[in-house]
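Collaborator request, handled under Task 6.
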Amino acid sequence: MIFHPEIIALIGTTEKEATGGRTIMENQLRPKGRRSAPVNTAFFLVLLIFMSCANLLPSSKVSVKSPWNDYDSAKVDYEKIIPGMTTVAELDRLGFNPYEAPNIRILNATDIINLFMPTPSIGIENLDPGIQKCIESKDRCTAYKIEPAILDSERIGSFWLDMFSFKRDTVASGWEFRGLITIVGNVVTYKDPAGGRPKISTQEIKKNPLGPLQDIGGIIQGATPGFLR
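Structure tokens returned to the collaborator:
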């Protein structure tokens, strides 16, 4: 069958009108991947946002400048203190100076009594001789409560769950040292055994099924009695 040239031209024009100015063959040969370019760009932008959100979670560090960077170094210097021999000047050289090193609290004789004799059932005769000497010395009695520490706190997990208070996952790490010595005049009379926590590692997970509405419910509940008056 032979078509007239004008009919063939008319068919071609109809094809282009139906296919947006292109023939069926041109449509078939046109690369289809170009249509998805905006979608791919949007996908990668969303993915980038989610990857960067993990770095937006809050974190904190509680530390006190001290001569010791960890528990072991504080304990090593503390063990060098010898009751009946170590002087205040030697304590200063070891780093136990409350006027220079933070987190060293100065106690007096009354503080020592409240600390070691919290109830009348505990008599002074039950205490270590070094503590007895400190209490009996009254104004000449001084004690150092040593508590250096470093604590790092960081929130982990999903940024969106954390931001909207659905779930908050907090991890903490660090160390803390505890020690106590009594001083009469210029010489140490008593030393507590070294204490504290050489390694702190805790995790706290707080879940709120209602998210931000959880706190709003508490505010409404607290405000209700005022409206009922």
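The cover message to the collaborator said: "The radius of gyration is 37 Å. The mean pLDDT is 76. Please let us know whether this matches your experimental observations."
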